[in-house]
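Pilot study result, target chain (339 residues):
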Amino acid sequence: MSVTSSVTFTLSRKHPKLRKLEIKKLQAYKVIEKIENLTLNQLFSFVPTQYLCLINVCFGGVAGVTSEQLNCIFNQLDGFNRIELIPGKPYSFALFDSVSTAKIAYDTLYEQPCENLNGKIIYLEFVNSSWIKFTPQDITVPGLLILKEFIPIELERDIIQELHSRNAWTIIQERKVQHFGYLFEYPNKVGDACSLSRRAFPEYMDLLLTKLHELHPFIPQMDQMTLQLYPIGAGIPPHVDNHTSFGEFILSFSLQSPVIMELKNLETGKAFHLDLPPRSLLIFGGEARYAWTHGIRSRRTDSLDNGEVRKRGERISLTLRTVSPTGVCKCKWPEFCNL
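Predicted structure:
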C-alpha cells in the first residue's frame, strides 16, 4: 500500500469545520511536495520508521509553536530522542529511538488536537529513509577534544575588553582578523615560516597555555595565533587547516557567545554538529585535524537538538597552530593533504 492511501484528500461535505481542516492539510502536503520536488511516496513511508515528519510545524508552520511546547508534547512519549527544526522550511522532525516507539507516538498524536497547542492538530507522517537520513548525536570525531569552561569568567571579561581596544584589524569576509607570531597568508591558508609578525602573543595567552600544558603536556608550543571577531550572523566556510604548513595540533578557544560548529568526514561524508560554549577550548588532533572539515554557517540563529532556536551574539575565537619548518606532511591521510 502506498503512503497516498493514508493521506486522503476527499474533502468532507458534512461539516464546514472539517472541510476547513482538510483544506489546510492538503495545502501543507502540497507545500512539502513543492519544496522537496518529490512525490508523497518518495517523502513518506506507509511502513513505520523511527522518524516522524511534523508536516506543519516549524518556521511558518503551526502558529505560535515554541520549542518548549513541542518538547512538552513529545517528552511525555517513550523513546523520544529529539526534535530537529529545519531553518527556512515549514516542517520539522521528531526522532525516536526505535520504530515501535515512533509508531506509538504516531498513534497517540495522529489527527488529535494538542492541548499544548491550543487544540491545533499536527499532521504526521513516517519519514521515508530514501528521502532524508539523520545523523546520530552520539557520533564521535577521533582526535577531537573539547574542554568546557577552560577560560575563567574574569579572564574572559578581561580578554574581551582588551580585544575591543585593539586597532589595525584585517577584514576577511565578515570577520575581523589579527595575527600574532608567524603571519597567516590568505587565500592560501598557510603560515609563512620565513616571516614573523611584529605582534608577540598577548600576555593572557601565557596563562591559558600554561594551564593547558599542565593538563596535556603532549601539546607542543604554539607559534602562530589568529584572533577573529565574528559579528552576529558571520561564519567561516568548511575547511581543513593546511597539512604541510602546520603541525599536528590546532587549538581553538571560544569566547563570548555559543555557536554550532559543523564537522564532516572527508572520506565517509559523515557530519557532526558540535555546540561550542563560551570559554571553551577545542583541540584538533589526529583524524579530526587531518581528515575532517570544520566550519560555521553564516546565519543569525542556530537550531539545537532539543528544538530550541537560539539567537547568535558576537563571538570571538583564538586559533593557535605550530608552523612546520619543513613544509612536509607525514600524516596518515595523504589523500586529503592541502585540499
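One observation from the pilot: The longest strand covers residues 175-185. A full batch analysis is planned for the follow-on phase.
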